Amino acid sequence: MTDLDTRADTRFDGARTRGILVRIFTHPAAPAFIGMVLVWLAIGLLAGRGIVDTMSAAIIIATFLVIVGIGQLFVITVGNGGIDLSVSYVMTLSAFLSCQIMAGQDGNIATGLIVGVVAGIVAGAVSALLIEFVGMPPLVGTLAVGFALQTITLIYSGSVVGVASPALADFTTARLGPIPVFGLVGVVIAVLFAVLLKRTSYGRRIEAVGQKPVAASFAGTRPALIRASAYVLSGGMAGLAGVLLAAYSGGPSLGLGTAYQLASIAVVVLGGSLIAGGRGIVSGLWAGAVLLTLLTTLGNITRLSGGWQFIIQGALIVVVLALSRNPLARR
Predict the structure, then answer these.
(1) pLDDT at 213
(2) Could you give the CA distance from residue 244 to residue 33 in angstroms, rounded to a whole number?
(3) Which helix (H) or strand (E) holds 209?
(4) Does the structural domain 30-325 have CATH classification 1.10.3470?
(5) Cα gap 238→122, rounded to integer Å
(6) Phi and psi (nearest 5°) for 104?
């Protein structure tokens, strides 16, 4: 090989490396991943110890947010101004229902999980009915369902006391060394839904309806049914998250899902998905969930008030939305 050939190969390798770096740093989820690492390092510097344990704990907490966020991502991606404001209420009701059935018995895990998820699916179906067939705006329809679920939960919780299965509770805190088992399961769930969204005809219809519903209908897709299915999926995922969170927390409570209503929307935005619909990024959802969790940890370490923590989170979302308007980020 001549010197000319060697120089040409070197230039080619350099151009390929630069191209890879450009694709990485202009990816819509890049700000969330970079922010996650920076906040994690900041926690390590301020706390001075426990940086591995901090990330391990953050992954456990973030997994609940990822599960409910996946459903929210599908609703947002399908477009039409879709946002599911019922998720926090679904989580709470599903937690009460499943814990009553499990009643502290390991033999009732499967039944309790199924009931919790089915309750969420039914709630999602009602939301879909109100939005797609009655004609309510998504915010109004899902909030109406949420308020109805809240009333049911208030009545139900007054006469029922349930306890999650001990085995399920142990599962949510189990570790393989420093790695949380629950986090690994969360990764598997995220991968499955990423494949569903990006590698199946259903997922392609979700994004197509979110981008151009009229064009999608001409291609043989029924936008109303696709949008309705997203709300059903969101309800089911919120129900699952509620059951698991109740097991982790030691039991259901009336405020169990409150923090997840807006956080489930925030992680979708932080993860690089388009709030207007048409593009969903499940991997970015993970980064956004861990980032929000670590921000809360950082706020607690620095003794910031809850108000300031919400301000910082809101400002971060605004910055990410501004960055997403960069043409290079719309890849």
Answers:
(1) 87
(2) 26
(3) helix 201-211
(4) yes
(5) 11
(6) 75, 15
Using DSSP's 3-state secondary structure scheme, residue 310 falls into: helix
| Alpha carbon distances (Å) from 24 to 235, 275, 283 | 33, 21, 13
Task: Collect contacts of 33-37 with beta carbons under 8 A, ≥24 apart.
Answer: 33/284, 33/287, 35/270, 35/287, 35/291, 35/316, 36/287, 36/290, 36/291, 36/294
Residue 232 per-residue DSSP state? H
CA distance 278 to 5: 45
Q: Which of 45-54, 106-115, 140-149, 314-323 has the lowest mean pLDDT?
A: 314-323
Query: Among 218, 164, 182, which Cα is nearest to 66's?
Result: 182
Extract the tokens encoding 72.
Answer: 């929210």
Q: Is the pLDDT of residue 13 over 60?
A: no
Q: How do residues 115-142 score in pLDDT, each as one tens digit?
A: 999 999 999 999 999 999 899 999 999 9
**Dihedrals φ, ψ of 314, to 5°?**
-65, -40
**Tokens at residue 288, please?**
């956004």
Rg (the chain; Cα; Å): 21
Query: Using CA atoms, how far apart are residues 10 and 20, in angstroms rounded to an integer?
Result: 15
- Neighbouring C-beta atoms of residue 125, cutoff 10 Å: 17
Q: What is the token pair recorded at 90?
A: 């679904």
Tens digit of each residue's pLDDT (9 = 90 or more) over 62-118: 999 999 999 999 999 999 889 999 999 999 999 999 999 998 899 999 999 999 999
Q: What is the pTM of this model?
A: 0.88
* H or E segment and range at residue 175: strand 175-176
Which pLDDT belongs to residue 298? 83
Q: What are phi and psi of 88, to 5 degrees?
A: -65, -35
